[in-house]
Structures are given as C-alpha cells and as structure tokens.
Amino acid sequence: MPRLPSTDPPPGITILELDVKAGLRFTVIAVAVLHYLIMSVHADHAAAPATRTTTTTVTTKPNFALTAIPALQGPTFAMWHHRWQGPNLGDYPTDVQSTVNMVILGVAQSTGNGAIDYSPANGQSVADHAADIRAFEAKGIRVSLGFAGGGDTTTITNDTQVANFVASVDRIRHTYGISGVDVDLEPSGSNWTEPSLVKALKQLESRYGTDFNIGITVGLYTPHTARWLDLANALGPTMDYMAPMLYDFPEAIDSRLTAVSLDKVQIMMDSGIPINKQMLGYMQRPSANYQASSPQVIREAFTEVKRRHPGIRGAFLWEDKIETAEGWSAARALGPLVRS
Q1: Tens of pLDDT along 299-332?
Q2: Cα–Cα distances in Å, from 269 out to 52, 233, 266?
Q3: Between 20 and 30 A from 175 (CA), which of 11, 69, 100, 128?
Q4: Nearest residue to 101 (alpha-carbon basis) of 129, 76, 64
C-alpha cells in the first residue's frame, strides 16, 4: 500500500496533535476555533483501485489573522480584567461597555528569562476568550496585555531577555489579538533595567506601529518615583500613558484621595509628562476594612482633577472581579465622567 504525501496545513494553522494512521492525504474541510475537521482520503491500489474516506479532528494552536490597530479615540476609561476570577469580557453590562474603551488583561506572568505567558483562568476557554477580545476590538474597545504584577518575577535586564519578552508578546498577540501592553513591573518580585525595558517596548512599537498602546501602571511613591519617571521620559513618544495606582493606602478611603490625586498629577507634570498622557488608577473598596475607595470618593476625586486639568487622558479601575461583586457601581460612577 503506497503512502500518499500529506499536504501542509493551511496558513495560520499549527498542528499540535495528530493521531491517525500514516499514508493519508489531509484536506481541511471545515474550520472551528481550536479544532479542525480533517478529511483523509486513503488510496488502496491493490487489485481494484478504491478509495475510502474517514474524518478525524486535530488540535491546533490558534493563530488568528491580525487586523490593523485603530487609534484610540477620546479620553480613556480602562478596566483591568482579573483573569483568575473576573467575568468573561462578553458579560460586561451594555452600559459599562458604552463607557469602557480599554480593557487591560491582568496579568501575563513570567515563564523565565524574560518570557511571559497569558491564558484565562476563570473557566473560559482560550478560544472563547480570544473571541471576546476580538469582539471588543471590533467595537472600538482596545484590549491591552498587562504583565507582571505583585510578586511576579518577570526579568528584563539583557538582550536575551528582551528578545524572549518580545517573542512571547508576539505569540500572545497572535493568539488573542491584543492591541497594546501595560507594564506592571512591581518591586515585590520583578527585575528590570531601564535600557533593556526601553529597548523591549520600542521593539514592540516598531513591530506593531505607533497605535499599539504602551502604558505603564506604577506605584508612584518613595523610593520608586524617580525610577518610574526616568523610565517614562526615556520612552518618550513610545509611552502612551502613565497610570499611578491610587489605592492600598489610608488616604484612599475618604476625601483625602482628592489631594493625593492632584499631587500625583503635579508630580508627573513636573517631570515633563503631559496631562494628555496621564491616567489615574482607582479601586472600589471590596470589603469594609480595605484601604480603597467608595464610588462616591472616586468620583469626587476625579471630578476635581478634571476641573483643574480638563485635558487629562483618563482613569482606570482595578478590577472587574470587584466591579461584578459590587454591581459595577464604581464603573458607572466614573466611566461617564471620564468619557464626557
């Protein structure tokens, strides 16, 4: 029985598992996310020539076609997505979707030597999560990849780690269709040098274009303030926004948050970061004793910031797990204000 050569997979399909007998020619006849229905034609030239067909399913790695990245329009109201316990993106309420115009996936984490990886961990499949992301992008809601976070060990300190980081972002972008990254390298575990991190982020901009969002979410407090501001200025036009986190401290629980918000804006302005590249990050209090804010305190703080600095880029909320539990009350208090 002769073996017939197998055809190459179609563009964008990487076959990871294939458990069928050799000697078959494969033709893709139907496509679904993650699984491809294959028709195999088995040619038997013994005695009377005959063919018979069978079908099988192979598991593949998604490699979706990428669309052009549109420029983000207007002020930015961003929501961090909690990939472990947050809702599916497609389950955001309609009115929240009308004000949120950026979602930041929280978070990709280190796989070693500069590389990072990301996948949903809230029970949703990779395929469905990718479909939700692409549906948001189609509506004009940009989806960025947050990476690192508290306790993560992402390290970007040399050219090898830069190359590994960029390659891993590329894989994630092709899987999910993300249109930006958000740097959340915190001192609790991560390690980076300014030259290497700047090189990595500029390579992403060079690869994907200037409309690929590159932001940094920071704890803008001593002793780390100067280092973050130096990074922002080293990035120059590559950085789309800087977003200090305004929670996890006593002043966040009441009207003192307004003064803290104004102070962070002034610190960034004094360092040369224009107001249209500044976002402020807030968090709704998830429990009575947590050092975060009520929706009213958040709204009052940002109202005063916007009154004094009407050109501010916007604000974000950490995160959609809390918002779901609290009836999206902070999102509904802050979103329309940011976008107005």
Answers
A1: 999 999 999 999 999 999 999 999 999 999 999 9
A2: 72, 11, 5
A3: 100
A4: 76
Domain ranges (residues) in the chain: 14-61, 76-339
State which H helix or E strand residue 148 sits in. strand 142-148
CA distance 303 to 299: 6
Specify the 3-state DSSP secondary structure of 40.
strand
DSSP secondary structure letters along 43-94 = EE-SSS-EEEEEEEEEEEE--PPPPPPPPPPSSEEEEEEETTTSPPGGGS-H
Structure tokens at 195: 């030259």
Q: In terms of C-beta density within 10 A (0-12 exposed, 13-18 middle, 19 or more buried), how is residue 337 classed?
A: middle
Class of domain 76-339: alpha beta
| 189, 152 Cβ separation under 8 angstroms | yes
Task: Supply the pTM of this predicted model.
Answer: 0.82
